[in-house]
């Protein structure tokens, strides 16, 4: 049996219509997205779209952290200078995380040449991640951590989170978007377009968040 120690305890929950796994990082953290929905008298989906695109609590640039890569060597998340980063936090036990991996692989294959770089951050047991990455033929970089992976999560200052969650940066590693839950193809198109406009100097990261939030809210509900 694997030691549990500091490892996160997963609890299956429906969070803001995404059907994501929520987990306890620390006793002080509360589920913030449902509270926003109640206070604002909006639906959970609307509140989540607003919260995900908000700058509240987020650092302006991608926080630096170092985890082991697939080869077991320490590597900084800031290793990919000049790239528009798509940093996806996930775990092998998370069903929505597993479902979105084919889309992430497709995004990397189709948009890597224009400067987008996906990096998966697996907060999980290393052996489990290595096995699953091989099974899924994950061809984008992975960083892996257990307690140090959880420490990386807390650098984003968002309180209670679920897996998966993904942050999008511009090519200067400024945070543009924060997405909680599984990414679907139409959402990905909107978020990639927002980053492109920031890279082109058409929008600031803050303005891109507002534009993307409106477009995401106008999408029809994703089919299960």
UniProtKB/TrEMBL annotation:
Keyword match Transmembrane: yes
Keyword Transmembrane helix: yes
Keyword line: Membrane, Redox-active center, Transmembrane, Transmembrane helix
InterPro entries reported for this sequence: AhpC/TSA, Thioredoxin-like_sf, Thioredoxin_CS, Thioredoxin_domain, Thioredoxin_ResA/DsbE_sf
Record Gene3D superfamilies: Glutaredoxin
Superkingdom in the source lineage: Bacteria
Pfam families: AhpC-TSA
Thioredoxin domain span: 56-197
Membrane-spanning intervals of the chain: 6-25
Protein name, as recorded: TlpA family protein disulfide reductase
Organism of derivation: Steroidobacter flavus
């Amino acid at each position: 049996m694997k030691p549990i120690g500091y490892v996160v305890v997963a609890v299956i929950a429906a969070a803001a219509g995404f059907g994501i796994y929520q987990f306890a990082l620390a006793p002080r953290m509360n589920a913030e997205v449902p509270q926003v929905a109640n206070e604002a008298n909006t639906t959970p989906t609307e509140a989540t779209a607003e919260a995900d695109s908000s700058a509240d609590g987020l650092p302006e640039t991608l926080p630096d952290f170092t985890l082991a890569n697939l080869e077991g060597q320490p590597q900084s998340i800031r290793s990919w200078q000049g790239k528009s980063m798509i940093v996806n936090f996930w775990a092998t036990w998370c069903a929505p995380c597993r479902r979105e991996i084919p889309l992430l692989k497709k995004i990397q294959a189709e948009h890597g040449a224009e400067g987008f770089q996906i990096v998966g951050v697996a907060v999980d047991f290393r052996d489990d991640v290595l096995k699953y990455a091989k099974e899924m033929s994950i061809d984008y970089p992975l960083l892996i951590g257990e307690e140090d992976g959880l420490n990386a999560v807390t650098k984003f200052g968002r309180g209670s989170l679920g897996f998966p969650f993904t942050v999008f940066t511009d090519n200067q590693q400024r945070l543009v978007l924060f997405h909680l839950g599984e990414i679907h193809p139409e959402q990905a198109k909107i978020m990639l377009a927002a980053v492109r406009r920031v890279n082109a100097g058409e929008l600031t990261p803050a303005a891109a968040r507002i534009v993307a939030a409106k477009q995401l809210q106008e999408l029809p509900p994703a089919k299960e």
